[in-house]
Amino acid sequence: MHPTLKFAVSAPGKVILNGEHSVVYGKAAIAGTIGLRNILTLQANSLSKISINLDILHNVLECDLSDFNSLLEIIYPIYKNQDLPKNLNHNEFLDKIKNFVLNTKFFENFNVADHVNTLSALFYLLSGILISNDIHKLTGGFIVSMKSGITTGAGLGSSASYGVCLAGSFYFYTKSLKSIDFIERFNKMSDDEQVSIKTEISDWAFCSEKIMANNTICTFGGLVKFYRNQKPTPLKFAKSLNILLIDSCVSRSTAAMVEKVLNQKTENAHRVQEVFDKIEKVVDEVAKILEDESLPTRFRQLSELFSKNHQLLSELNVSHKELDNIQQICARYGLSSKLTGAGGGGYAIAVLPDDYQQRHDEFSKLTEELTGAGYQVRDTTVGNVGFQVDIVKNE
Ligand SMILES: Nc1ncnc2c1ncn2[C@@H]1O[C@H](COP(=O)(O)OP(=O)(O)O)[C@@H](O)[C@H]1O
Ligand SMILES: C[C@@](O)(CCOP(=O)(O)O)CC(=O)O
C-alpha cells in the first residue's frame, strides 16, 4: 500500500478524417487524435474503500474493499495462470464483473443498472490487470476521479479514451504497488520500452471497447491509416493539423447509419461500390498529402478533398440538413467542412489554414455565425499526443 501515491493519466478523443462507411466494406480510413482529453486522477489512501468520482455519474460512488476482495478471491484462482488479456474469455469474465457491479451497493439510491457498462469497464480492467500482475488482494483503498473533456456518444472516441484512461491508471497503480517509483521510471524509458508498455495498455483497453483503431489511436496518438479490425498504421512525418470541430447538436446512431448504407448496397450494389471506390481515392490522396513533408501548406488541397468526401457521403444519404448547412456557412468563409463519423448528425470538421489564429476577426465571425445557427464550435488540432501519465505532487 502506498498512501502517498497520486498520479494523473489522460487520453485524447479521436476523429475520422476520411473513409467513414467505406471502411466497413474493407477500404482504408484516416483518423487522428484530437486536442480534447479525458483526465483521470488516481490517489491511493489507507481507507478500506474504492471511491469512484466520474463527473458523468454526478455522484461519488464507494465500493467496500472487502466486497472487491471477495470478487478477487473468486476470480483470481480461475484466471491467474492465463496469459491475460490475450487468452481472456471476454464474455465469461465480463458476466462475472457485471454480476458483481449489479449486486454492489455503491451509493444510496444510485441506479446501478443505468450505468452498468461504465462501471463494469472499470472493475473489469481493475481486476484483470491486478490478476495479470499476480495480485489477489488489495490492502489499501484509492479514489479515481475522472474529468471528462470529450462529448460522449458523439463519435469523438470518448469510450476509447475512457478505456485507455482506466487501463492506463490501473496498470500504473498495479506496477506502483510493486515498485513505487514505476511512473517516474516509465517517463524516463526509451521510446521502445514505452511503446511496449503502451501496447499492453492499449490491449487491455481493447477489452472495454472492441474497436481496435480507436484504442490504438487514443493510446499512441498521431494520425493513422487503418482498416477495420486491424491495428492502424501511423502516417509517417504527418504533422498535426488545425481543425474546427462543429457539433451539429443532432443526435445520431452509428448503427442506424451503417444499416442505411447496407440497405442501399443491397438495393444497388454497383452505385454504392462506385462511391466507395471514389472515397478510397480521396483517402489515398489525403494520406499522400499528410505524409508529404515538402508541402508548404496542406490547407487548399485538403479542403478540396474534404468537400469531395462530404459530397460522396451525401450520395450515400448519411448527411443531414444541419451538416449541409454547416458546410454552406463554412464555405462562405473559405473553409470546407465534412461530416465525420457515421453522419446523420453528430460532428462536422473543417481544415483550418495554418495562420487562422492571426486572421482573428474573420475566424470570430465564422464562429459567431455557426454558434448563432445553434451549433457548438471548438478549434483544436488533429494528430496530437496519445496516452500520458504523470505523478501529481501535493502542494
Ligand atoms: N469521461 C467518461 N467517464 C465515464 N464514462 C465514460 C466517459 N467517456 C465515455 N464513457 C463511457 O463510454 C460511453 C459512450 O460510448 P459511445 O456511445 O460509444 O460514445 P463515443 O462515440 O463517444 O465513444 C459512455 O456511456 C460511458 O459508458
Ligand atoms: C460509419 C463508420 O465507418 C464510422 C463510425 O464512426 P463513429 O463511431 O460514428 O465515429 C462505422 C464503422 O467504421 O464502424
Could you explain the architecture of this structure?
Residues 299-355 form the GHMP kinase C-terminal domain. It comes from Pseudolycoriella hygida. Keywords: ATP-binding, Cytoplasm, Kinase, Lipid biosynthesis, Lipid metabolism, Magnesium, Nucleotide-binding, Steroid biosynthesis, Steroid metabolism, Sterol biosynthesis, Sterol metabolism, Transferase. With 395 residues, the protein is α+β, with helices and mostly antiparallel strands. β6 (223-226) and β7 form a beta hairpin. The protein has helices spanning 65-79, 90-102, 116-132, 158-178, 182-188, 191-208, 212-220, 254-267, 269-291, 299-315, 321-332, 360-372, and strands spanning 6-18, 29-45, 49-54, 60-64, 141-147, 223-226, 233-234, 241-247, 337-339, 347-351, 376-382, 388-391. The two termini are 21 Å apart. The radius of gyration is 22 Å and the shape is globular. The strands form two sheets. Strands 1, 2, 3, 4, 5, 6, 7 and 12 form an eight-stranded mixed sheet that branches. α1 packs across α3, α3 (116-132) packs across α6 and α8 packs across α9. The chain contains twelve helices and twelve strands. The chain has two domains: 6-233 and 384-391, Ribosomal Protein S5, domain 2 (2-Layer Sandwich), CATH 3.30.230; 241-382, Alpha-Beta Plaits, CATH 3.30.70. The structure holds adenosine-5'-diphosphate (ADP) and (3R)-3-hydroxy-3-methyl-5-(phosphonooxy)pentanoic acid (PMV). Adenosine-5'-diphosphate (ADP) is lined by residues 38, 54, 56, 117-118, 146, 148, 152-159, 162.
